[in-house]
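User: Run a structure prediction on this.
Assistant: Running it now.
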Amino acid sequence: MPVRVLIAATGEPVSVDDVRTHLRIESTEEDYLLLSYITAARLYAENYCRRSFMPQTFRLSIDTFPASGLIELPFAPLSTNSTDVTITYADSSGNSTTLSSTYYTVDYQSEPGRIILNKDLDWPDTYGHYLDVSITYKSGYPLDANSTGGTCPGAIKQWILMRVGQMYEHREPVLVGQNFSYLQRSFVGGLLDPYVLPEIV
């Protein structure tokens, strides 16, 4: 199911200040580099967990409404604002139409979030072409004015700090003539394990 980011995250779960404190860096000369590492670590972990750490807007495109009456939305947690989910489709004449929210219920509690066809209703007919149905929605841990990185779990933030530290210390993928050891996967990778979602197929 093709899904793409319409509006990317405008912040990060950890700040450059957090990274400098974590790595005991006093200079601000490499702040741009540190920010790029933070973003790279977040994107990797989001794809690994199939989860949004910061609020982002996505568009899921599917060929037609599913016979099961159920549409799962990649990347949790789903925003609980009802206006953050809209469905458009190409009707039987090929015209773009917004589906009334009376047709469906949004399940915000499940991960991933779901759109469920209401009882005794049928999805409308589509044009019968490619990617006739588009669902636009927002997902990500809510922002919190009192906390850097919003409400993103602390274990995820700690994973990002450690991965940024690794990238900062080892700036090439291979170190020639040097021996070094990584933190055990059971600890570092294990920080993300509770947040990994099953793949939607």
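The CA atoms of residues 104 and 118 lie 5 Å apart.
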